[in-house]
Amino acid sequence: KTAQLRPGLVLVVLPEDANRAIPLLRATFEVLPVRLMVIGPSSDAKLILRMIREGAYHYVDEADLEEELCSALKRLRAEAPLNPQLGRVITLLGASGGCGTSTMAVNIASLFAKQQQSCCLIDMDLERGDLATLMNLQPAHTLADFCSHVEHMDESMFTQCFARHESGVDLLAAPTSYREVPCITPQGARRVLSMARNKYKYVVVDLDLRFRTEHQQVLFQSDVIALVLRLDVPSLTHARRILDYLSDIQIDKLRIKTIVSRFTRSRDLRMRDVEEALHVPVIGVIPEDSSRVGRSVNRGQPVVLGWPRAEISHRFGELAALVNGQVD
């Protein structure tokens, strides 16, 4: 959960079995480019060397903790931050099937790409991932390829994993077969978001409802979690369960934004019913427009680009500003 705090420095106090700290160092670097300061004994030169090779910014002798720690902190304050401009991660999560979450992800990402010229879209709906189809793309590589080579992934390889859409969005597609789904690991999920937020100003993730460990890694790194639901009882019930789950894994409630999708005036439930049941405000409403959405799917062109003056496009624009807060 380090990504939720965005620290500039992480202190690691070595346990008696120092080898137990190695996975922690590696996992932290996978999440954020952060300085790691290791505190431990100075009697083992090989241990110190290994910690430095694993990425420790400074090794502090526990026997002379006060003096060495003060010295290291002074040096840290004199240096520039590693990367103060990390990209913003916006994750869309559907409360139930038919919420139009993937369509929403494509359109929001297209707006970010148009306005800021830097946005990627990651398909974490692993079993059903539709983003490549919605964008009429045939990617050469997928998230499964990234995870299969995560130990050796560099910037050049990372760039090749994406397919560019005419909107300017770079897509990292979901696995193309069910047998590749197990390739998606927590380590891969941490790493792909870390690299993406260092390369792009905006990272939009379409997340499914499986809630495996790798999905949790996405939630931990998300700046905004947009919970999308329809105005019907099953969707509202699932949304309540999802909010309880997010609370259980200690996701800050302030990062969760609720959106009503496929809205029509004929629905029995009202906005007030949703807000009273979920105890969170609804920040946006996307109207039902099956005709334009259907044509946009067949064309592989986001609605906001094909019909920029339509009401649904205006609502997508409002939503992009609301979940981001930084769109001009």
3D architecture notes:
By secondary structure, the chain is α/β, with parallel strands linked by helices. The protein is 44% helix and 19% strand. The protein has helices spanning 2-5, 21-31, 45-53, 65-78, 101-116, 131-134, 143-148, 155-160, 186-199, 213-221, 233-248, 271-278, 290-299, 303-306, 311-324; strands spanning 9-13, 35-40, 56-61, 88-94, 119-124, 163-164, 170-172, 202-207, 224-229, 256-263, 282-287. α2 (21-31) links the parallel β1 (9-13) and β2 (35-40). α2 packs parallel to α9 and α5 (101-116) packs across α15 (311-324).
Break the fold down into its secondary structure elements and pairings.
Blueprint: H1 2-5, E1 9-13, H2 21-31, E2 35-40, H3 45-53, E3 56-61, H4 65-78, E4 88-94, H5 101-116, E5 119-124, H6 131-134, H7 143-148, H8 155-160, E6 163-164, E7 170-172, H9 186-199, E8 202-207, H10 213-221, E9 224-229, H11 233-248, E10 256-263, H12 271-278, E11 282-287, H13 290-299, H14 303-306, H15 311-324
Parallel strand pairs: 1-2, 2-3, 4-8, 4-9, 5-7, 5-8, 9-10, 10-11
Antiparallel strand pairs: 6-7
Silhouette? elongated
Poorly predicted regions are none
Number of helices: 15
Summing up helix and strand content along with how strands pair, one would put the structural category as alpha/beta
Order of helices and strands: HEHEHEHEHEHHHEEHEHEHEHEHHH
Strand content: 15-25%
Report the average pLDDT across residues.
85
Biggest β-sheet, characterized? 8 strands, mixed
Residues in helix, %:
40-55%
Termini gap: 30 Å
Rg computed from alpha carbons, rounded to a whole number of angstroms: 22 Å
Strand order of the largest sheet: 6-7-5-8-4-9-10-11
Number of strands: 11
